[in-house]
Specification:
The chain is an alpha/beta fold and 440 residues long. It has a six-stranded mixed beta sheet, with helices on both faces. It has a four-stranded antiparallel beta sheet with strand order 2-8-7-4, with no helix packed on it. Strands 11-10-9-12 form a four-stranded parallel beta sheet, with helices on both faces. The protein starts with 25 loop residues before the first strand and ends with a helix. The N terminus is likely disordered. The structure holds iron/sulfur cluster (2 copies). One iron/sulfur cluster binds next to α10 and α11.
């Protein structure tokens, strides 16, 4: 008997609002100026190797990886380094350095390495290319990809899951990539299978993207290894795209508390990341751009290929501008997105979407213990207990309710009749536990 019903599991059904799904990817204009934070990824910040007034080219490395769990950063325009400033990282929420570069408008690239047949490269050489290209998980997690592709020897990987679910409302960047760049995505997957030494892969796509399912099935059938890759059509439900829920739905495997997919033999990777792996290995191109969906209260929602460091305001302007009532902007979707301090915040490697909206937060009231949040939680947790314990500063008791297993999907808060921002309580609780050094 299957452990989990592939058609049903807890979660919620927010309106998809995938208004940009039919819009082909367009190239955004080159920014006049870019701001590149050195901490665009999980792990140690990169270290700047340029200084004010240095001339740089597009694709030139401007910051070295700051350690093993770190990646370099490359200039996304040609021009001149203006200054190094301090910004709040939208990944870590910590203040850190950022390099400001004035574009010369010419987009002169560094000389890219000669193309080579990836078959002639060893695993170590492929990993080095991926690291040097500055590739991180582009589904939002921004974990350095070369680290994820090197699980420890005691964690053998038997399955790779490609996350093409894009379950967050509004976001359509991966959907368009599968439709328009599916071949590159598959080549990226093949490289990943080689590096990990894994012969089984699933491409998971929600059934609200039938065109992407058909496209990827057709491409897989034309490969020389179709039996090793399955395109899995999954019933649309939020938060299917969260790694742990996806893994549970496809394989019926449960990641242990505080663990990672590799603890149960799986590596999950996002569609955009595979495209970046393809570009680095086949074309020698470092990671300087990505597809960003701009949606919400904008005149024309679009999927834009945009250079990192571009001000969100410029991209919103390219989409016809924001509606007058808009007073808030998120990077990401409405469920897990992070509100940005200003409309001119620069986009980064993890920015898959810019959502322009009106702040509609309602006043929080006391929990009425209705249990709605418990029913909605895809991880079978008791979210109301996090609210209670954080309010009462009983942080150590949070572990009794497996808070580390919370994927911060926001399903619990979505239908909470008391308008309690439960995920904010979860984040505070996890941070306090880290400070206390308490682990389950
Ligand atoms: S849904 Fe809200 S009000 Fe209901 S039990 Fe959960 S936290 Fe309390
Ligand atoms: S407790 Fe965590 S995993 Fe469960 S619904 Fe809330 S945010 Fe999602």
């Amino acid at each position: 008997m299957a452990l989990f019903d592939k058609r049903k599991s807890p979660g919620v059904h927010p309106p998809g609002n995938k208004v940009a799904s039919g819009k082909a990817i367009e190239r955004a204009p080159l920014p006049r100026e870019i701001i590149l934070p050195l901490s665009q990824h999980i792990g140690a910040p990169a270290k700047a190797i340029v200084k004010s007034r240095d001339e740089v080219k597009t694709g030139q490395k401007i910051a070295e990886a700051g350690g093993f769990v770190s990646v370099p950063i490359h200039s996304t325009v040609s021009g001149k380094v203006k200054k190094i400033i301090q910004v709040v990282s939208s990944v870590t929420s910590q203040v850190g350095d950022a390099i400001v570069i004035e574009s010369d408008g010419r987009d002169e690239w560094i000389e890219l390495p000669r193309r080579v047949d990836p078959n002639s490269l060893s695993k170590e050489e492929l990993l080095n290319i991926i690291k040097e290209a500055g590739i991180v998980g582009m589904g939002g997690a921004t974990f350095p990809t070369h680290v994820k592709l090197q699980p420890p020897p005691n964690k053998p990987i038997d399955t790779i899951i490609i996350n093409g679910c894009e379950c967050e409302p509004y976001i359509t960047s991966d959907h368009r990539l599968m439709l328009e760049k599916g071949e590159e995505v598959l080549r990226g997957l093949w490289i990943m299978m080689r590096v990990i030494g894994c012969e089984r892969a699933y491409i998971a796509i929600e059934d609200n993207k039938p065109d992407a399912i058909t496209k990827m099935q057709s491409l897989v059938s034309k490969t020389s290894f179709p039996g090793k890759i399955t395109v899995e059509s999954l019933h649309t439900q939020y938060p299917l795209g969260a790694e742990k829920t996806l893994l549970k739905r496809i394989l019926g495997r449960e990641v242990p508390v505080g663990g990672l997919p590799m603890d149960v033999g799986v590596v999950v990777q996002n569609v955009s990341t595979l495209k970046a792996i393809h570009d680095a290995v086949y074309e020698g191109r470092p990671l300087v751009e990505r597809v960003v969906t701009v949606a919400g209260l904008v005149r024309e929602p679009m999927n834009l290929m945009a250079r990192f460091g571009t001000s969100a305001e410029e991209l919103i302007g390219f989409c016809g501008g924001a509606a007058r009532e808009a007073d808030e902007m998120l990077f990401g979707g409405p469920m897990m997105g992070i509100a940005q301090p200003a409309f001119d915040t620069p986009t980064q490697k993890g920015t898959n979407s810019i959502l322009v909206k009106k702040n509609t937060k309602m006043e929080e009231s006391n929990c009425i213990r209705c249990g709605t949040c418990v029913e909605a939680c895809p991880m079978s947790l008791m979210p109301l207990m996090y609210v209670t314990y954080v309010k009462n500063k009983k942080y150590e008791d949070l572990n009794d309710y497996w808070i580390e297993n919370c994927v911060e999907c926001g399903s619990c808060a979505y239908d909470c009749p008391a308008n309690i921002p439960i995920v904010q309580y979860v984040k505070v609780g996890k941070a306090e536990l880290r400070k206390l050094g308490v682990k389950k």
